[in-house]
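An example makes the point: we let one protein speak, the chain in one-letter code, the fold tokenised, and here it is:
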Amino acid sequence: MEEKNPIQVADRLFLVLETLACDAPIALADLSRQLDLNKSTVHRLLCSLIYMGYVKQDTYTQKYDLSLKLLSLSNRLLSRMDILEIVRPHLKKLSEKTGETVHFVQLDGAEAVYIYKEESYQNSVRMVSKVGNRIPLYCSGVGKAMAADMDEEQIRRFWNASNIIRLTPHTITDYSRFQEKIEEVRKKGYALDDEENELGVRCIAVSLPDYKGRARYAFSISAPAARMSDERITQLAEIILKEKREIQQNM
């Protein structure tokens, strides 16, 4: 059985707001037709929303549109959102499930900054990374994951701003080759650091775009290369992509 809003007027008020968000500015007659409500009812709803400051009417065209009050409310909500509070339980679960260390990073120019680390205590080998440390985008899994969410101009900008050096025999220093890797990430949904930043360490990473879809965060599973065979990478890919979907549902 379909659930109905127990307060019909609230249902209609929000229906007006949602319609205006898609089709405004709009005349009263057109709005009434879209909502399938008579004009007098829609006019009362609009007057109520105008009184509360959520809707405005153009004095010249007489058309209705949303005010900036909703934007103000959304900005307040976003200012209260602590990304770590959202992702921490997921990162802990990911570490426990895989038995490996999980990192969470934030984009900062041509680098990523570690802002959270969930160390695995199931294994004796410890990752040298620390919260607050920085890692270049061009030679890291998290960097390539975030780059896949960028356009060509953004990628070229951070590449040019990076000090491109061969940290290991596996480090990619050719831009065309790097672009090929980014295309692979876009197809697969995840990125790899294949001993490109540190010999003996492989990582699998996924991006976590912000609420506007912009590249801003990423998280990864890191482990000694001896425990990160291609077969295990395939298994971890399924796990980390599933966790990414669950985080996005909670954002």
Summary: The chain has a mean pLDDT of 88. The radius of gyration is 24 Å. The chain has nine helices and eight strands. The longest strand covers residues 101-108.
